[in-house]
Write a structure and sequence with these properties.
- It is a single chain.
- This protein is α+β, with helices and mostly antiparallel strands.
- It is built from eleven helices and eight strands.
- It has helices at about 1-20, 30-45, 55, 60-75, 140-160, 165-175, 185-205, 210-215, 220-225, 275-280, 310-325, and strands spanning about 80, 100-105, 120, 135, 245-250, 255-265, 290-295, 305.
- It has a six-stranded antiparallel sheet with strand order 1-2-5-6-8-7. The protein has a two-stranded antiparallel ribbon with strand order 3-4.
- Strand 7 and strand 8 form a beta hairpin.
- Helix 1 runs antiparallel to helix 2 (about 30-45).
């Protein structure tokens, strides 16, 4: 009972800290320090989950977290286990498997540049859970627009609003009656001459001097050219400079689920970590400073954007239930 009361008090204190941060009463460093202390107390008072409850509650034991991490490392070699700082190690996890990390993941655009291709889903699903915003690529958006345009023409066709069909037949007859100048023989000769010229051009292209392409700067990647920047000497650079992120996954003992962390680095200076405010530029506004907050990583120093795990178990339970229904 005393442990439960302590965890409840720590959770209430965390809520007060977040509320103070939202109202601007606390600076970012103070918020992260206070949150880390409250979470440390709460986690210390939480007993380690021993029995599997993944199917019933969508949560993991530390052993299940390690097994899942091993599978991730096996399937995706860019992910690795890290031991972290010995002074910050968690006793419920193996010393050499404290958290998972993958580094230098590129982030090519800010959220603001995607606003025109973001479709917000309205309402909740059948279980009242979140609905994640669907981000459409430019190609997907174009396909959606083309499909909508086709549907509009189908409606017009069904309602016979595109004109008298007799006019269409008349136009077809006129096109059929048109005569293209020149005989069939002259057309065939023209085709043969065109084929010979194309073959000769292919031979010339096959042995073209690469220096010609370099002089004309034709090897420059179009995407890089659009955002290329000047180097220190004032010349053109074809290197696309983007922000990068280190992604890590820890085990949250209180929520008994994995927790995702992001650490960003500047596009111009890859050694400079991004501030919390800068990292929020890469988070959809629906989630920035709500489900994604800036906090201290339990193993790595520096501010990290963290996806809050409070709904993780419920979401996983729903996924498992849907998979079970599908057989």
């Amino acid at each position: 009972r005393g442990a439960n009361g302590g965890r409840r008090n720590a959770t209430i204190e965390e809520s007060r800290i977040r509320s103070g941060a939202d109202q601007g009463q606390l600076g970012e460093p103070n918020v992260m320090t206070l949150l880390a202390k409250a979470q440390s107390v709460r986690e210390y008072l939480t007993p380690t989950l021993k029995s599997s409850a993944f199917l019933s509650r969508g949560v993991l034991t530390p052993e299940e977290f390690v097994k899942a991490g091993d599978e991730l490392v096996y399937k995706c070699p860019t992910w690795t286990w890290e031991a972290g700082d010995p002074n910050k190690r968690k006793g419920h996890l193996p010393p050499d498997k404290q958290y998972l990390v993958t580094r230098s993941v590129p982030c090519t655009a800010r959220v603001s540049s995607l606003e025109n291709v973001v479709a917000q889903e309205e309402g909740d699903d059948d279980d009242g859970d979140w609905l994640v915003s669907q981000v459409l690529t430019a190609q997907e958006q174009k396909q959606r627009d083309d499909k909508a345009l086709e549907d509009e023409f189908d409606i017009l066709d069904d309602e016979d609003l595109i004109g008298d069909k007799s006019n269409v037949k008349s136009a077809e007859k006129q096109l059929a009656s048109l005569k293209i100048g020149g005989s069939v023989e002259s057309a065939a000769q023209s085709d043969e001459q065109g084929d010979e010229a194309a073959q000769q051009q292919d031979k010339d292209d096959e042995y073209a001097d690469m220096a010609d392409f370099e002089d004309d700067n034709l090897l420059e990647d179009e995407a890089a050219a659009a955002v290329s920047t000047s180097d220190a000497d004032g010349g053109n650079s074809n290197v696309l400079k983007v922000r990068t992120y280190d992604l890590s996954i820890t085990y949250d003992k209180y929520y008994q689920t994995p927790r995702v962390w992001l650490m960003g680095y500047d596009s111009e200076d890859s050694s400079r970590p991004l501030t919390g405010q800068e990292m929020m530029q890469d988070v959809i506004s629906d989630y920035a400073n709500r489900t994604v907050t800036v906090e201290n990583h339990p193993h790595v120093s520096g501010p990290h954007a963290s996806i809050h795990p409070c709904q993780h178990g419920a979401v996983m339970k729903t996924i498992v239930k849907n998979l079970t229904k599908e057989g």
